[in-house]
Known about the structure:
The protein is an alpha+beta fold. The chain has helices at residues 3-6, 12-22, 58-61, 73-93; strands at residues 26-32, 36-43, 63-68. A 3-stranded antiparallel beta sheet has the order 1-2-3. It starts with a helix and ends with a helix.
Amino acid sequence: MAEWITSPATDLEAAIARFKADLPGWWFSVGECQISCDASCAPTDESEHIALAVRGNQFDSGFDCDLAQPSTLALALDEVRKQALAAIAEAGSNGVG
C-alpha cells in the first residue's frame, strides 16, 4: 500500500470547484492515509442551509465518507458533496428549509 504516498492528487481542484459551486458557504476537509481517503463537510453561518442544522442532525454534525484505498481525495470530496445535495433535496421535498 505504499503507492498511496506517491500517487498524484487526481482532479482535486476540479472537485473543490464543484463543491464550492454547489455548496457555497460550506466548510470541507479532506485527508488521506494508506488505508483511506476521507472527506467531511457541513454548512457554516454564511450558508443558506444553516437553517437546516438542528442539534444532532446531519446538517449539524456534518457529512462524512471514508473510501478505502485505492481512492482519491477528489472522489471523497465528491461523495460528501453528493450526500449533502441529496439531504438538501430531501429536506426540500419534506417542506423543510
